[in-house]
Design goal:
heterotrimer, A alpha/beta, B mainly alpha, C mainly alpha, A: six-stranded mixed β-sheet, four-stranded antiparallel β-sheet, B: mainly alpha, 16 helices, 4 strands, globular
Chain lengths: ~240, ~325, ~290
C-alpha cells in the first residue's frame, strides 16, 4: 500500500447523545480511490462530515499527512487540501454558477484546476456561468458542486452521494468524468448507495454498518455475497 | 415490581409554599412594623417583581421578546390619571378599567407587530411604545409633554390620612404581585401553559400537535398587556405624578426588567424573584454611582447571558435540583 | 406649492441620513441574521468620537472620519469576534439581550465621559450654507448627506455583489457549514461584516453630529429610525433601505410642517401603515 495520506484511528462521532460512529480505523493511501458503501443511516455522511471538519472530533481521531486534524474547523481542514462535495449538492443560491466556482477557489491552493479547466471538464457550465445556480438542472448543479470542490485543488476529495436523485444518464456522465478528475493525482473517497458505480471506479472498498466497518478489501477481492452480507448485516 | 407515581410537588416546593404563606402574612403586616421609606421601597420591589414575571412570561415562555412593555406601563398610568380626573372614577376602579382598555388596544397592535419576526418584533414593540409616548405628549388635557399631578381629591379617595394612603398603596402593590405571581403560575400549569411550553421548545412540533401558535401568543400578549397596565397604574399611584418621558421610559420599565429576568433566570418562575432581590440589593449598594451602576448591570447581564444563560436560579437549580414552584413532573419510585 | 415642494425635498434629503442608519443594520442582518439593539448607540458613539477628534486635532469632521471610521470598524470586528459571535444560533434571545446590555453600557459610558449636555460637531459653516435651486433653498449639508448615502449604498452594493468579500458574505449567509467547507472562517467573515457595518455607522454618526446636536440618550431613537427604514424598504435589500429612509424622512418633514410636535410620530405612523399594507416592505429581498 502507498504511504498513508489520511488515517482514521478509533474515530467516534456523536450527535448529542446519539453515537453515529464507533471507533473507525481506516487508512487511505496517496492516489487511491476508495469507495464507502452502506445502507441509509450507516454513518457514511457522518464520516464525511467528520473528516471535513464539520463535525468536531478528538484531535487524533483523524490524521492527515501525519498531522492530527480531528479538532480543526472545516475551513482549516479545507486549507490543508481536503474538499467535500456534499450530499444534496448544496450550492449557494445567492451566488451565480461562476461565483459558486470562484468561492471554491477561495483557499487558493495552486494546481491544475481553475475556472478554465473546470469549464473544459463541464462545458455546459461555461454557457450558464452567469445564471443563478438554482436555475440549473440537478445534473448541472452536481457539476457545479464537483467543480466548486475541484477549484480548491485539493489533494483529497470526498464525494458524498453524488448520484443521489439524478437521472441514470447523468450519473453515467458524471462517473465517466471521474477518472479524468482523479487522474490529476488526487486521492478520492466516494460515498455511494449505487454500489456498482462506486466499485467500478474504486480500488478499495469499505462497507459501513450501524457506525462500524463491516467489510474492507480490494475491490477485485470482495465478492458480491460478502458485500450483501456486510451491507445488510446478515450472513449470506 | 415497585409502583411509581408521577407528581409535581416536591418536599422543597411544599416547604416553600408554607414559608411563602408565612412570609406573606409578615409582609402584609408591614405597615405596622416598617418605616415609611422601607414601605415605599418594598412597594416598588413588588411592582418590579410583577413586571419581571410578566415580561418573563412573554419572553421566556411565549418567545415574544418585547422591549416595548413601557407602552402598557405608561398607558396604565395615564388611564389612572384620565379616568379619575375626567370620569371621576375611584383610583382602583380606574386602574382596572385601564387594564381592560389596554387589553382592547393590544389586540390591533398585536395583529400588526406579530408580522415582525424575532428581534424585529422587539424593535416593533419599541416603536409602539414611542407612538404611545408621543401621542400622550400631544394631549394637553393631561399636561402635554410636561405631564401632570394627581389631584388631591383623587388621592384622598385612598385614605384621608397620609399613613393610611401609603398603607393602601402598599397593599395594592403587594396584592398585585401576589396575583401576578399566581396568575402566571396557574397559567403555566394549565393546558394553555403547556401549549406555550411546547411552542417554546419547538414551534414546528407544536403546530404539528394542533396548537394554534399565533392565537396562543396573542392571548399571552393581551393578558400580559392588561396586567402590565395594572402595574403601571399602581406605579403612578405611588408616584402621584406622570409625564410622557417617565411613563414610557424604556430604561425604567423595560431595561431594568430585562436585566432582572436575565440575571435571575429567564424561562423560570423563580428567576424573576431572585433577579428582583439581586437588582434591588445591587441598587442599594451602588445607588451613589448612577451611571456606573447601570454599566455594571449591563455587563452582568451580558456575562450571565453568555456564561450562564439560565441565570442565577438556573445555577442553583442545577446544583441542588430544586424547584420552588412545582411546574415539571417528577417520577417517584414507591418502595 | 413651492413651500410643500421644499418640505418634500427636505424629507428626501433627510431620508439619506436614515438610509445610512439603516444600511449597517440591514448589512449585518443580511449576513448573519443579527439585529443589533446597540446600533443607535454606536452611531452616537461615533459622533462623540468625531467630537473628540475634531476638538483634539482641530480638524474638520469630514477629516475626522479618517480616524473614526477605522476605529469603529476595528471596534466592530473585535465586538463581533469577542462577544457577538458567541450569541449566534437558533435562539434569538442571546443576541437580543446581549446587544441590549451593550446598548445600556455604551449609553452610560458616554454619559460618564461626556455628561448629558447636548453637543454638536462644528462643520465650519456648511451646516448653514444652502444653494438656490429655482427658488428652492437646499441645505448643502443635507444634500451632501444624501449624496454620501447614495454613494455608500452603491459602494456596499458593489462590495456585496462584485467582490470576493461580498461573495463570502453571501455564501455564509446562504449556508454557514458549506461556506466553512470552502475555507471561509465564518467567525472572521462575521467580524468583517460588523466592521463594514460600523464603518458606515461612523459616517452616519459624523453626519448626524454636524446636522443636529446629540446627547448620550438619543441612540435608541436612531436605532428605531434605521429599523423603520429597513422594514419599509424591505428586509435584505440595500437600495430598499434608501427608499425606506426617504419615505420615513418625507413623512417626518410633512408631519413637522403640520405641527412640530408631530414630526417623529408621523414617521412612526408611516411605518405602521407600511407594516399593515405591505408587511414585506416595498422592495423585498431579491434573490440573485
Amino acid at each position: 500500500m502507498p504511504e498513508a495520506l489520511l488515517t482514521l484511528s478509533g474515530l467516534d462521532a456523536h450527535y448529542g447523545d446519539f453515537q453515529a460512529l464507533y471507533g473507525l480505523d481506516m487508512s487511505i493511501g496517496e492516489g487511491e480511490v476508495i469507495a464507502i458503501i452502506g445502507a441509509n443511516g450507516a454513518g457514511k455522511t457522518t464520516l464525511m462530515r467528520s473528516i471535513s471538519g464539520l463535525l468536531k472530533n478528538r484531535a487524533d481521531g483523524v490524521s492527515y499527512r501525519g498531522q492530527a486534524i480531528g479538532a480543526l474547523r472545516a475551513d482549516q481542514v479545507a486549507e490543508l487540501g481536503i474538499a467535500l462535495v456534499p450530499e444534496g449538492r448544496q450550492l449557494f443560491p445567492s451566488l451565480s454558477v461562476e461565483e459558486n466556482l470562484m468561492i471554491g477557489g477561495k483557499v487558493g491552493r495552486p494546481g491544475h484546476w481553475s475556472l478554465q479547466t473546470v469549464y473544459e471538464l463541464f462545458p455546459i457550465l461555461e454557457e450558464r456561468r452567469h445564471q443563478a445556480s438554482t436555475s440549473l438542472s440537478g445534473g448541472q448543479q452536481q457539476m457545479v458542486a464537483i467543480g466548486r470542490a475541484l477549484m480548491a485543488n485539493p489533494d483529497l476529495i470526498l464525494f458524498d452521494e453524488i448520484s443521489l436523485g439524478l437521472a441514470p444518464v447523468i450519473i453515467r456522465q458524471i462517473y465517466e468524468a471521474l477518472p479524468g478528475i482523479v487522474g490529476q493525482g488526487m486521492t478520492a473517497m466516494i460515498v455511494e448507495q449505487d454500489i456498482a458505480q462506486a466499485l467500478k471506479v474504486s480500488s478499495r472498498v469499505y462497507c459501513l454498518q450501524e457506525g462500524r466497518i463491516s467489510l474492507e478489501g480490494a475491490t477485485g477481492d470482495v465478492t458480491h455475497d460478502q458485500i450483501t452480507a456486510a451491507y445488510f448485516g446478515m450472513d449470506a | 415490581m415497585s409502583a411509581a407515581t408521577v407528581t409535581r410537588s416536591t418536599r422543597a416546593s411544599r416547604i416553600a409554599m408554607v414559608l411563602g404563606l408565612l412570609g406573606l402574612v409578615v409582609l402584609a403586616a408591614a405597615p405596622w412594623w416598617a418605616g415609611r421609606a422601607d414601605l415605599r421601597l418594598m412597594g416598588e420591589i413588588y411592582l418590579y417583581l410583577s413586571l419581571a414575571c410578566l415580561w418573563n412570561l412573554m419572553a421566556g415562555y411565549a418567545g415574544l421578546v418585547s422591549v416595548g412593555q413601557q407602552a402598557y406601563v405608561g398607558f396604565g398610568g395615564y388611564m389612572l390619571f384620565a379616568l379619575t380626573v375626567f370620569a371621576g372614577l375611584n383610583p382602583v376602579v380606574a386602574i382596572l378599567v385601564g387594564a381592560l382598555l389596554a387589553a382592547a388596544i393590544s389586540i390591533p397592535i398585536a395583529t400588526l407587530i406579530f408580522r415582525l419576526k424575532g428581534a424585529y418584533f422587539a424593535i416593533g414593540t419599541w416603536v409602539v411604545a414611542e407612538v404611545f409616548r408621543l401621542s400622550f405628549a400631544q394631549i394637553q388635557a393631561l399636561g402635554g409633554g410636561s405631564g401632570s399631578s394627581l389631584p388631591v381629591a383623587v388621592v384622598k379617595e385612598l385614605g384621608a390620612k397620609k399613613a393610611a394612603r401609603e398603607a393602601t398603596s402598599y397593599w395594592l402593590a403587594l396584592g398585585a404581585a401576589v396575583i401576578v405571581l399566581f396568575a402566571v403560575y396557574f397559567f403555566l400549569r394549565s393546558r394553555r401553559g403547556l401549549a406555550l411550553t411546547a411552542i417554546r421548545d419547538s414551534e414546528v412540533a407544536a403546530s404539528g400537535l394542533g396548537i394554534d401558535i399565533w392565537r396562543t401568543k396573542l392571548e399571552v400578549y393581551v393578558v400580559t398587556s392588561a396586567f402590565t397596565a395594572i402595574i403601571g397604574g399602581l406605579i403612578f399611584l405611588q408616584k402621584l405624578r406622570i409625564s410622557p418621558d417617565a411613563a414610557f421610559s424604556v430604561n425604567d420599565w423595560t431595561a431594568f426588567v430585562i436585566f432582572i429576568v436575565v440575571i435571575g433566570g429567564i424561562g423560570t418562575l423563580e428567576g424573576p424573584i431572585i433577579g428582583t432581590l439581586l437588582f434591588f440589593a445591587l441598587r442599594e449598594v451602588l445607588a451613589d454611582y448612577g451611571t456606573i451602576y447601570l454599566m455594571v448591570l449591563g455587563l452582568v447581564a451580558i456575562v450571565v447571558m453568555l456564561k450562564a444563560p439560565k441565570g442565577v436560579w438556573g445555577l442553583i437549580r442545577d446544583r441542588y435540583d430544586l424547584e420552588l414552584f412545582p411546574l415539571s413532573y417528577r417520577v417517584r419510585q414507591k418502595d | 406649492m413651492i413651500e410643500w415642494t421644499g418640505v418634500i425635498v427636505q424629507g428626501v434629503l433627510l431620508g439619506g441620513l436614515y438610509a445610512l442608519f439603516a444600511a449597517g443594520l440591514s448589512l449585518i442582518f443580511g449576513v448573519m441574521r443579527l439585529v443589533n439593539i446597540a446600533h443607535g448607540d454606536l452611531i452616537i458613539l461615533a459622533a462623540y468620537m468625531g467630537l473628540t477628534t475634531t476638538v483634539m486635532l482641530g480638524v474638520h469632521p469630514f477629516l475626522a472620519l479618517l480616524i473614526v471610521m477605522p476605529v469603529m470598524a476595528g471596534l466592530g470586528y473585535v465586538l463581533q469576534r469577542g462577544i457577538l459571535n458567541q450569541t449566534l444560533g437558533d435562539d434569538i434571545l442571546p443576541p437580543l439581550l446581549v446587544t441590549f446590555g451593550l446598548s445600556v453600557i455604551i449609553q452610560n459610558a458616554l454619559l460618564e465621559t461626556y455628561t448629558a449636555d447636548p453637543r454638536k460637531l462644528d462643520g465650519g459653516g456648511i451646516e448653514v450654507a444652502s444653494i438656490d435651486m429655482g427658488g428652492l433653498a437646499i441645505g448643502v449639508l443635507p444634500l451632501m448627506t444624501f449624496l454620501i448615502a447614495v454613494a455608500v449604498i452603491a459602494g456596499l452594493q458593489f462590495i456585496f455583489y462584485r467582490t470576493a468579500l461580498g461573495r463570502g458574505f453571501r455564501a455564509v449567509s446562504d449556508n454557514q457549514d458549506i461556506a466553512q467547507l470552502m475555507g471561509l472562517n465564518k467567525a472572521h467573515v462575521f467580524g468583517l461584516a460588523m466592521a463594514l457595518a460600523l464603518a458606515v455607522v461612523a459616517i452616519a454618526g459624523i453626519l448626524l453630529g454636524m446636522r443636529t446636536s446629540f446627547d448620550p440618550a438619543i441612540g435608541g431613537g436612531r436605532l428605531i429610525f434605521g429599523f423603520e427604514a429597513v422594514i419599509i424598504g424591505g428586509l435584505g435589500n440595500l437600495w430598499g433601505t434608501l427608499a425606506g429612509g426617504v419615505i420615513l424622512g418625507v413623512a417626518q418633514t410633512i408631519g413637522a410642517k403640520i405641527d412640530p410636535g408631530f414630526q417623529i410620530l408621523a414617521g412612526h405612523i408611516a411605518f405602521l401603515i407600511v407594516l399593515a399594507v405591505r408587511p414585506n416592505g416595498l422592495l423585498p429581498r431579491v434573490e440573485h
